[in-house]
Recover the amino acids of this structure.
């Protein structure tokens, strides 16, 4: 009996020590969200901008990342784990730790509904409302495999955050059009974006903003304009309806589709825009065709 009691005591002490000092979180919140992991990740990034004091998201993957929130004199770390359930539903687990008051929280949590718990739940309820509002503003449909177009084009190369992609486009839309029209260069299709580098870890995006044109001997010589030919590629196609600022939600939808169907892709999407945002209108009627190239395999 003494040996059994010693074992039970040792296990109890071990559990207490683990709970107080080794357990990775002070509090955990679980909920389901009607969105894929990539959409949730991008929405957390947008929500994060609303805090008076914030730091960048620490990225591991769209399904696992850390957010640091400064609450009064405390620093709270939110570790997000997102698991897709099906095409439009994900299970979200958020592990929360108060960096400066962790031990006090762990001592209090089993015995009372603390301000730390209440504040954490309220923040995540606010986030869920933010997410619900966001997903009302766009739709994405996967169309399957399709060849991209081939065209000669005039391009301006840009580097921004993914969130500022549309701003970069708008800042150069009139510039590019004006130079081409001045030389009577004929356009040959809607404008598009060719992504060169999608750096999720550093929240950076390098891309060409282009107009398809008819090749001419009168092409204007300008240091910011590059002329090139886009060649067709086999790709997975999606159609996105919504504001161009958040068209990368379609990138994640294609990424998820490719993973589920074991299709190797190059994360360098091509977006074709069929509406001019300067004309206004219902954003849900703005159309973007999005293509994610399929990696070529040597047979």
């Amino acid at each position: 009996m003494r040996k059994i009691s010693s074992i039970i005591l040792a296990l109890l002490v071990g559990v207490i020590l683990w709970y107080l000092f080794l357990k990775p979180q002070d509090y955990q919140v679980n909920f389901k969200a009607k969105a894929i992991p990539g959409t949730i990740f991008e929405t957390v990034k947008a929500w994060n901008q609303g805090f008076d004091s914030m730091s960048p998201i620490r990225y591991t993957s769209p399904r696992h990342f850390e957010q640091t929130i400064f609450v009064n004199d405390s620093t709270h770390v939110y570790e997000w784990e997102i698991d897709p359930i099906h095409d439009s539903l994900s299970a979200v687990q958020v592990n929360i730790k108060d960096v400066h008051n962790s031990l006090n929280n762990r001592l209090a949590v089993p015995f009372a509904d603390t301000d730390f718990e209440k504040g954490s739940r309220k923040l995540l309820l606010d986030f869920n409302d933010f997410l619900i509002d966001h997903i009302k503003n766009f739709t994405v449909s996967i169309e399957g495999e399709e060849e991209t177009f081939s065209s000669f084009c005039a391009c301006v190369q840009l580097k921004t955050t993914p969130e500022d992609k549309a701003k970069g486009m708008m800042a150069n839309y009139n510039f590019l059009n004006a130079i081409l029209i001045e030389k009577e260069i004929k356009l040959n299709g809607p404008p598009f974006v060719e992504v060169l580098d999608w750096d999720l870890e550093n929240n950076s995006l390098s891309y060409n903003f282009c107009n398809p044109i008819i090749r001419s001997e009168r092409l204007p010589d300008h240091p910011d304009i590059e002329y090139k030919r886009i060649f067709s590629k086999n790709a997975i196609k999606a159609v996105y309806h919504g504001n161009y600022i958040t068209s990368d939600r379609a990138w994640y939808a294609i990424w998820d589709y490719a993973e589920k169907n074991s299709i190797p892709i190059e994360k360098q999407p091509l977006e074709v825009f069929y509406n001019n945002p300067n004309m206004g209108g219902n954003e849900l009627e703005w159309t973007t065709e999005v293509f994610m190239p399929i990696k070529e395999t040597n047979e």
Observations:
- Residues 141-293 form a domain with the Multidrug-efflux Transporter 1 Regulator Bmrr; Chain A fold (CATH 3.20.80.10).
- The longest helix spans residues 2-22.
- The chain has a mean pLDDT of 87.
- The two ends are 68 Å apart (CA to CA).
